[in-house]
Design brief:
Strand order of the largest sheet: 7-8-10-9-6-11
Number of strands: 26
CATH superfamily of one domain: Transferase(Phosphotransferase) domain 1
CATH class of one domain: Mainly Alpha
Shape: globular
Number of helices: 16
Helix content: 25-40%
Largest sheet: 6 strands, antiparallel
Distance between the termini: 64 Å
Radius of gyration: 30 Å
């Protein structure tokens, strides 16, 4: 009966193939959806007081113009909105670039979505970019056409490592050289190229490169060369990665992530002429033959369809592993186990809808609320505010990093929630709050006697050692400070807040960034001034923290009448003068272990030395703290030691990370991330 109905609907094989093709095309269209990657909002703003300001009026006109021109076959268009009366201060330059393998319809959808998204992400910026998988859209109050932009960079990588790096890396280098040359010399008007090659018997490596078509061959090649040079730093030994510049981008994966129609296909070998077909019988046995053909074709077609669905599922699952390195990402790419995800309704219920009675803390990121799960477990919910400096990237960073870390001196992440505008992190509840809450409060300092302080110092050291060397990942925290050390019921320290952390490969120990993230007073000088960071950057922060724990004084608000302008100078003066015990917090009295105090100060000063190579690693620090007989080297002058008031390190300072951009550092315990991604 089933076979009979099918025969009636599809009277011959060709009609059946048409039906199957339509089904597959429809499925493919449904599977296609826009994939937002990351925004970039430069810190140059216009007045946010009204949406009818001249700049916003011009911007709306420009975005409308770009959207209406998204049907161009080369997927690129630029336009200028002149200021009223040709006022150059309100002139805006804009462009869009659609990926070369997408259809005009997809390009139109992406540009329309990007035109709306860029206003949402950057509501009052004069310069902004949004990247999608399918397109980018950009505007600026400065001329941006026909110019390669190498100042703004986002890099992303797949968290999975390759199985044969010795074979993979040369193959990737070879393909990248090919697509750089092909894209730069592309005469089709798209400045677009893809290449692929066999990596193993069962895997192929796929690569893609594209420039904005307004670039010259030389400028396109230079932009792509810059992007390719980033890969060893961001994506070393990873199975997938991408680098995004405003003027060009590259990507590679171990699955075909671009449209099949643009893949370079080898010429097929000549095939022999087909044998002559037997005459088609005209007798009644033709019906039996049709049934036989359909009986064979239908299972084959269903199998192909199931294989296609499975292949698309595997691609989507692989995409979910895709991880952005500190500077850029999108919520659709979370690679966290589903078991970690909490519903918003559940969190609202257990926190009494984020009531004031349940609030247990707050910071620059937002508020922290206490809740109790149905099994009686107490939790802490970190709710990121919309105005928080800790954005989606930092939110994702905490999930990806902390979810994979297990150590008694690291805060334990229980889950997360990302619904609508809400970004929530669910942690184990730590009843004694943060170290700064007790250490710098005159009424609570007595809770931290010397034995507890020494235990806290040792616990923080062990936690950092785990991050730097003992975990499966190598992680640099980049924002270690008293407020990011939580204390449990037994006063055991737990390092928290991994929003600014950076993940390194096992053989990588240092990097440079234009994103200076951290807190004034805790940042090492090479990081604050030049963007160079390493495990020794955390060692410097640890040294500052040790000196704060010993003295009970806060580095960022330090004042002393002996001429020292900062805590490090004060500690160095006493160490140099042979009076280290004068540094001990007066509330501790004479009950402290003299040798442990001097040893802690000694270690703290070793950690804050200006010469990066002279600072000990955390393995050495843990060994020093656990040994009573080890001979410690003599510390040199701290990095920020000032001989006079005129040489003091200013509370607010500027640094130049790229020879053209100066940015303020964090002041007064406020963490600031400037969006100059690297």
């Amino acid at each position: 009966m089933i076979m009979l109905r099918f025969e009636i609907i599809c009277k011959d094989f060709s009609v059946f193939l048409c039906c199957l093709l339509c089904l597959l095309i429809g499925f493919s269209k449904r599977a296609n959806s826009l994939n937002f990657l990351v925004p970039y909002c430069e810190n140059v703003t216009y007045s946010p007081n009204t949406t009818n300001s001249p700049f916003r009026t011009n911007l709306n006109f420009l975005l409308s113009t770009l959207s209406s021109n998204a049907s161009r076959t080369n997927g690129f268009y630029n336009s200028t909105a002149l200021g009223r009366g040709n006022d150059p201060s309100n002139t805006i330059y804009g462009l869009f670039l659609c990926r070369g393998d997408f259809s005009v319809d997809v390009c139109q959808q992406c540009v329309a979505s990007a035109s709306r998204r860029i206003i949402q992400e950057c509501p009052n910026q004069k310069r902004a970019i949004v990247w999608y998988d399918e397109c980018l859209l950009r505007y600026s109050d400065q001329y941006i056409f026909s110019r390669g932009d190498a100042l703004t960079l986002f890099a992303m990588y797949n968290v999975q490592n390759v199985t044969d790096a010795a074979r993979f890396n040369p193959l990737l280098d070879n393909l990248m050289d090919k697509i750089q040359n092909r894209a730069a010399n592309d005469l089709s008007g798209k400045k677009f190229a893809v290449e692929e090659a066999n990596f193993s018997a069962f895997q192929r490596l796929y690569t893609l490169a594209q420039c904005t078509p307004d670039l010259s061959t030389v400028d396109c090649g230079s932009c792509l060369s810059n992007a390719i040079s980033v890969l060893p730093n961001c994506c070393h030994n990873r199975v997938g990665g991408r680098v995004l510049y405003p003027s060009c981008n590259i990507r590679y994966e171990l699955y075909r992530f671009y449209n099949n129609s643009v893949a370079p296909a080898p010429a097929p070998p000549p095939s022999p002429p087909p044998p002559p077909l037997p005459p088609v019988p005209t007798t009644s046995s033709s019906k039996g033959s049709s049934r036989t053909i359909i009986a064979i074709v239908v299972p084959v077609a269903v199998s192909i369809l199931l294989l296609l669905v499975g292949f698309i599922f595997l691609i989507r699952r692989s995409r979910k592993r895709y991880d952005a390195i500190v500077e850029a990402t999108d919520a659709s790419q979370f690679s966290t186990p589903e078991s970690l995800q909490y519903s918003l309704s559940l969190i609202q219920a257990i926190t009494n809808n984020f009531s004031a009675e349940n609030k247990i803390g707050e910071g620059g990121f937002g508020h922290v609320y206490k809740g109790t799960l149905q099994n009686g477990q107490e939790i802490a919910v970190k709710r990121l505010s919309r105005s928080s400096m800790q954005g989606l990237e930092e939110f994702k960073n905490e999930i990806l990093l902390v979810a994979n870390l297990q150590h008694r001196n690291l805060v334990r992440l229980l889950g997360f929630c990302f619904e609508g505008e809400e970004k929530l992190l669910v942690y184990e509840f730590v009843p004694n709050k943060s170290l700064d809450y007790l250490l710098f409060d005159p009424e609570k300092q007595h809770m931290l006697d010397w034995s507890r302080r020494y235990k806290i110092i040792a616990g923080i050291a062990r936690g950092l050692l785990y991050l730097h060397e003992d975990s499966r990942l190598r992680i640099i925290h980049r924002d270690l400070k008293a407020s990011n050390i939580l204390l449990d019921r037994d006063m055991n320290p737990k390092i928290a807040d991994f929003g600014m952390a950076r993940l390194f490969g096992a053989d990588q120990s240092a990097a440079t960034t234009k994103t200076i993230a951290g807190t004034y007073g805790y940042m090492s000088p090479e990081y604050a001034m030049h963007g160079h960071f390493s495990t020794k950057s955390d060692v410097f922060s640890f040294g500052v923290l040790v000196l704060e724990i010993v003295t009970g004084k806060k580095n960022s608000s330090f004042y002393q009448s002996d001429g020292a302008q900062d805590l490090l100078s004060h500690c160095w003066k006493n160490w140099r003068d042979g009076t280290p015990l004068a540094l001990l917090d007066p509330i501790l009295g004479n009950s402290s272990a003299r040798n442990e105090v001097i040893q802690s100060i000694h270690i703290g000063l070793l950690c804050v030395q200006e010469d990066v190579d002279e600072r000990p690693n955390m393995a050495s620090v843990v060994l020093m703290l656990s040994s009573r007989s080890a001979t410690l080297p003599t510390p040199d002058r701290p990095a920020f030691f000032a001989r006079s008031k005129t040489e003091s390190f200013p509370r607010e300072f500027q640094f130049d990370a790229s020879t053209s951009n100066s940015m303020p550092a964090s002041v007064n315990e406020t963490t600031v991330t400037e969006l100059y991604p690297r």
